[in-house]
Amino acid sequence: MIDLQIPFEKLSSTLKEILLKYGFTEERAHRCAVLFAKADLDGVRSHGANRFFLFLDFIKKGLVNPDKEPVALSQLAMFERWDGQEGVGNLNADFAMNRAIQLSKEFGISCVTLQNTNHWMRGGNFGWQAVEAGCIGICFTNTIPNMPAWGGSEPKIGNNPLVIAIPREKGPVVLDMAFTQFAYGKLSIAKAKGELMDYEAGFDEKGNLTKDPGTVIDNLLGLPIGLWKGSGLSMVLDLLAAVLSGGNASHEVGKSGHESAVSQVFLCFDPRKLELRDWIETKSDALIDDLKSSRTFGEKSVRYPGENTLETRNRNLNNGVPISEKLWAELQNELNS
């Protein structure tokens, strides 16, 4: 599969022009397109343009409403609940994290929740949104059931991605992870290439561990990270998202057969307001310096979450964003259809 190097502005403008054909306003089309393109810019290709046609399909099916924006359900000081009205997932999440940032600047700590929203695509975008505003950000979402509870043989819980982002002058620490060993977007890319995963990715229909991404996708039996521990943590995040937002839990999300009307939580901490600035840098640097001093097996290096993102971003800004030739042709066909 051949990759083309597409300038970031060209990629985002192409996505924007397509979105304008689907009922987006100019401003919302631009913001939504940039969020998609940023995933590819930062090297997270599983949740960027590769997901764009799935997103368009959800619009066609009426599962995503381009013109709907969040409406407030409850606003109690630093805690707010919003209804996403089955609007655009990445735009709703962008709004919610921005609201959490604003509230943290006022109160120091904030929690903003969304019910009835849609897939946020790359969750890491919203961790970066927080650290770029100088804040600590934590956010998580539930999903359609796509992995078994530990010991189970059917998909009952979601892989419920979690993002934790901590600002740091020498490079933010940004963890962006789902609770399956491999995100389904990454499995889909490997399946398209005819590749097996490096490690067991899930179960087949007989309960055997498998590295075959297609088998895992077909059965929705992703392997929980940490085995029973990941299964338990995923369930707790699902429960928290549903309780704090008043929205759907994963088992309710799955009733439609599609991943829509999910629940999300956005937490924010302003280090300046909370008087953490005196030590946040020294604590972060000391921990990472110690991590980097670790002995390794062979010539491998130890990395912290998000370490390579800025390097990847700058390289792709200079050289162009890698997009498969096939996907770029499909985008051009959609644009000109």
From TrEMBL:
GO terms for molecular function: oxidoreductase activity. It holds the Pfam family Ldh_2. It comes from the Bacteria. Keywords: Oxidoreductase. The keyword Amino-acid biosynthesis does not apply. InterPro entries: Mal/L-sulf/L-lact_DH-like_ah, Mal/L-sulf/L-lact_DH-like_NADP, Mal/L-sulfo/L-lacto_DH-like_sf, Malate/L-lactate_DH-like. PANTHER family: 2,3-DIKETO-L-GULONATE REDUCTASE (PTHR11091:SF3), OXIDOREDUCTASE-RELATED (PTHR11091). NCBIfam families: PRK13260.1. This is 3-dehydro-L-gulonate 2-dehydrogenase. It comes from Algoriphagus chordae. The lineage of its organism: Bacteria, Pseudomonadati, Bacteroidota, Cytophagia, Cytophagales.
